[in-house]
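Query form — protein Iron transporter

QUESTION: What is the three-dimensional structure of this chain?
INPUT:
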Amino acid sequence: MRKLVATALCLAATVTATGCGATVEKPANAKSSAVTLTNCGREVTFDKVPERVVTNDVGITELMFALGLEDRMAGFAMPDDKGDLNGVPWKDGYDKVKWLSKEQLTKENVLDARADLVFAGWNYGFREDSGFTPDALKKLGIPSYVLTESCHNGRTESSRGIMPPLDALYADLTNLGKLFGVEQRAATLIAGFKKQVARVRAQAPAAADRPKVFLYDSGQDQPFTSGRYAAPEQIISEAGGVNVMHDVEDSWTTVGWESVVRRDPDVIVICDYGDVSAEQKKKFLLSYAPLRNVSAVKHKRIFVLDYVDLVESPRNPSAVARLGTYLRTVAEER
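ANSWER: The structure tokens for Iron transporter are given below.
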């Protein structure tokens, strides 16, 4: 994966709480009074400020780091295929907090870490089929916080997403700020992110000129992609494009290649992670016969973003800016 430059990302994020020299408020004392938050449409009360948080996956972990909360963490679980972590603004967090597992979280990880909060999401650690759920943890006396991007929406048994993706990011930052007593830090981050996104939006092509974009995560028989409620939806739209899968009322899901061909995207964005490299994914897309007449393939308009850019994370606004620059070029060429 492409190595990220810490200085550039610090400037892009405007106000990362650690790693960029920002002055930050001191987190609340763990003996503070109970805090009630709205998470996935439900009110959840936490009796005290967590001191041993365990997180699952890179985007969720970096939400904690961006708020300067690594001292409140007991560890994180994350596969080692999510990019170079040495150049990120939160490298100090990764150096300081224990890497518990290179697989998804388990009850054993959580118990061994003596966790007093698990911050994960549906399909970002929480899974019904594995028995690792908020309800199962509650029976062990361990509270949970669910990533808002991943909230089940009730449209189908597994569909996820209850609000626009960037709103989900801001909701989680706001909630975490309240829970840990760093509300001003969260508000400053959110204001910086909104300002950055607004700058990109102001430069976006006119509605009639906006390129159609397909997000390609993985899969050859059927592509795994992003519907209306995953981060790419708003990353694409704020960058000046149109997500061709906007009508899919889910976050991350599988579709058919025929639907991609029918919608004829002008650009394909590759999600870079895993055992199959971005270059291998690009080679497949350019050589896959059913796609040969798709505009993005004919003109080789393929753009790569890292996994953490495309899941809910503090890197989303930077991804909007980078994709925006590319889409403006495409719009000018067409």
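ADDITIONAL NOTE: The two ends are 29 Å apart (CA to CA).
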